[in-house]
Amino acid sequence: MSSQQLCAGMSFQEGGNWYCRPVDSITYTNVGTSGQYDEVVKMDDTTGKCETQPRSFSGPMAPFNEPMSLHFRGPLHLKQLAVYLPADKQKALVGACKASSPGFERAAYYHAENQAAEGLTFLGNFGGIGSGRFTFAFGNSLSYINANGTSGSPQSVVLADTLIPSGKEVIVMTDQKCDDSCGFVQQGSVGYKGFPSENRIILMDFTMPHTDDDDRPAFWMLNARIPHSAQYGCNCHASGCGEIDVFEVLTTGENKAKTAFHAFGSQKGGDSNYFYRPSGNTIRLAVVFEAEAGRIQVNILNKVQPDEEFRKALSRADVTRPIVDSDMSESVFPLAG
């Protein structure tokens, strides 16, 4: 059902934000455009000057077809996480031949209880503490993050099976160090590539328990060029290089989580239908990028999928067909196009 239909006669304002109905799936359509954003090309530590130049983008899902980083803000307990790429893209990523099997293959995986991690790196904005760099002009660069998600680390470690504290942020990138394809990387920063492809699936199990402090957990995705320069400050965000708020609690203690897009031109907007925050239970969430249809779907799957470990390969139908075959409520929100 369209977002407009679901919201008819049901919208209300709370904490300065608009809400309509709780749903289990939100699909954004008309994803992708062409245009320009201002990419960072130089950061002067002495003057604090942030130099940019126009960068053109186009193609299916643009600018969300560029490599992206994953961001988690506590209070959030991440139980499992996987990033799936098209089989041929994954083979290219690891330098092998084109895959013969269809579908998606697991490019990165994390299992908290087993302390298993492959294909990914945990980072934070703690530059100058163990790794990375701090400057008075630009603050903390990216750094490795400690196992508790609370400070920097001198080397890459696996995130512990623990609650990310309220207000702390953990960033996940690939395990491949940056080269020229990353664009500008702040001097001294810990630079790893974002997750590529206009077709990708992010799958995660998590919970967001209440705490007594800030209590605004979130999961979002950024164009990886943003944290490579500076996540807060000197970056391409304001000019529209791309952010997707996948599951964000907007006010302290709230039990509703919203989605939103922030990017160039028509690629901005947010559905007022919302997800229930998993404060006492673990949920399974899938984010599905589908370039052929120009859409991105966010699905809660725990009602229709058993609590098993994530497979090494899957098809898009594995994380979208349950929406069609069940009584789960779905909202469809068209970006302006």
Automatic annotation (TrEMBL):
Domain Cell wall protein YJL171C/Tos1 N-terminal: 24-85
First-level EC class: hydrolase
EC number: 3.2.1.39
Domain Cell wall protein YJL171C/Tos1 C-terminal span(s) in chain numbering: 104-319
UniProt keyword annotation of Hydrolase present: yes
Any one annotated GO CC term: fungal-type cell wall
Catalytic activity: Hydrolysis of (1->3)-beta-D-glucosidic linkages in (1->3)-beta-D-glucans
GO process terms (BP): cell wall organization
Domain of life: Eukaryota
Keywords, alphabetical: Cell wall biogenesis/degradation, Glycosidase, Hydrolase, Signal
Keyword Signal: yes
Xref: Pfam families: YJL171C_Tos1_C, YJL171C_Tos1_N
An MF annotation (GO) of this entry: glucan endo-1,3-beta-D-glucosidase activity
Record InterPro entries: ConA-like_dom_sf (IPR013320), YJL171C/Tos1_C (IPR018805), YJL171C/Tos1_N (IPR018807)
Entry similarity comment: Belongs to the PGA52 family.
Protein name: glucan endo-1,3-beta-D-glucosidase
Species in which this protein is naturally found: Echria macrotheca
Organism lineage string: Eukaryota, Fungi, Dikarya, Ascomycota, Pezizomycotina
